[in-house]
Amino acid sequence: MHKLNPRTAALLSAFGWAVGYLLAGKALAVLLPVPPGGAARFFRVCLLAPLAEEGVFRGAVQRRAQPLGREQAILLQAVLFALQHGSAAAMAYALVCGLGLGWLADRTGHLWPGMLLHSANNLLVLAMG
How many CA atoms lie within 13 A of 39 on its CB side? Predict the structure, then answer.
């Protein structure tokens, strides 16, 4: 059996995690729709999404992409994070946030600071309507 180049394996793994997260999110949205507003929306947007997205993008994707280089791993996870955020404006904002959160995860070696910032950001976005 042929062994993959470490950079190719890193890319395939990173893309696999991102696609898996996107598909799981779509399935959950269909199976467990959340009505607009209320505690369920707060829980989903301010708690569940930041925990899951930090774990997938800054955790799994960024760490698996390390063979590409630190900066490239941060950029890759930020681009994949942005692509799953819908409109062009949301993608641009998510790209900038993803770069900052990726840098923070790389700098601290932990996901929890990014989880807290991500939750605070989503709370502000939710409050602004």
Answer: 0
